[in-house]
Amino acid sequence: MYIKELYIKSFRNYEEAAITFDNCVNVIMGENAQGKTNIVESIYLLAMSKSHRTSKDKELIGWEKDFARIQGKVERRNGPISLELIVATKGKKVKLNGLEQRKLSEYIGAMNVVMFAPEDLNLVKGSPQIRRRFIDMEIGQINPMYLYNLAIYQKILLQRNHLLKELQRQGKNRMMLEILTSQLIDAAVKVVQKRFQFVQTLEEWAKPIHEEISRGKEILNIQYKPSLDVSETMDLSKLEEAYNEAFSKLTEKEIQRGTTLLGPHRDDLLFFINDKDVQTFGSQGQQRTTALSVKMAELELIKSKIGEYPILLLDDVLSELDDFRQSHLLNTIQGKVQTFVTTTSVEGIDHKTLNEASTYKVEQGTITKLK
User: Which residues contact 295 (CB under 8 A, 6 or more apart)?
Assistant: First the structure.
């Protein structure tokens, strides 16, 4: 899979740009604040309908413009596809092969991407919210039904939290709380089950990669930690039973606090090296190796599910890795994955993959192919 053509209009600092890319490593060079990251952000946005940098859509739209447009032509194993995303102040519109898709779950997954940016190094040491977002975005690419169930869960969660705040003040309408709790559990168990399955598969791919990077000295384990202590092997009916029992015991406490205390929105992901929690006890090097192993495992996991490699976006991340980790990453992607590398300079990175790459220069919102 690779993106062949990209067109952006009124996006960030780009008034208009049409770019053709090669199915290899594409290096995008330029000084800071010129628009390098905006290119890889537009590709990620086209694939996921969300930015990896901001949740505020208005930041994506050019100054004094009403909307931003991103279009792409993608070559896939089963044939070419065209994607289009329009971001307006009133919302987003997505098209697949010229047809508007009403549900994002019917659009996401048409083009698969893996993003690795400096902030992804916080995957290990950052907040649980970062890790939950990582899980949700990755599962959503390979399982559109997951996004549908997650959206239902989040909608019911908002309604339930609103009702709990009302009950906190008035103490009425507990019957409605029972209905919403039942609906919440129905969506929650589907989300949790898929997360367990994903994390198990991710660990299978990440463990040998991490062992290789650490030269056989470290064993990586990844564990999904739900807010409710349930077994990973539980089926949906048993999960549902466990949630029902737990929620029945929490009713008074939830009303008192005015919020839902249990569910996928409070779950987390744990990383262990040689049985020690990397977040708490791992060195910065171990935390970075863990994040790198997970990102490289994503490539293999997605390929195993869809039959072809996703597109890899490396946004200013090579400068954050030492020479050994740089080389390991570049050796792995060589000749296999269409990759976009943003950097201020490739000086000091003497590697065959970058020496043979297609190179682009970005300056003040204008991108030019050099070779």
Answer: 114, 116, 120
274: left (phi over 0), alpha (psi -120 to 50) or beta: left
CA distance 338 to 319: 20
Distance CA 84, CA 8 (A): 10
Q: What single letter denotes the amino acid at residue 265?
A: H
Banded pLDDT at 316 (limits 50, 70, 90)? confident
* Structure tokens given for 213: 């990077």
Cα separation, 299 vs 57, whole angstroms: 28
Enter the DSSP assignment of 12. Answer: T
Provide the CB-side half-sphere exposure for 131 (13 A, CA): 24
Which part of the chain is CATH 1.20.1050.90? 124-307
CB 108 within 8 A of CB 141: yes
Contact assessment for residue 101 and residue 110, using Cβ atoms and an 8 Å cutoff = no
Q: How far apart are CA 289 and CA 273, in angstroms?
A: 10
- pTM value is 0.91
Q: d(Cα 187, Cα 151) in Å, to the nearest integer?
A: 9
CATH class for the domain made up of 124-307: mainly alpha
CATH code assigned to 1-112+310-371: 3.40.50.300
**Does residue 351 have a pLDDT over 80?**
no
Which residue intervals of the chain bear CATH 3.40.50.300? 1-112+310-371
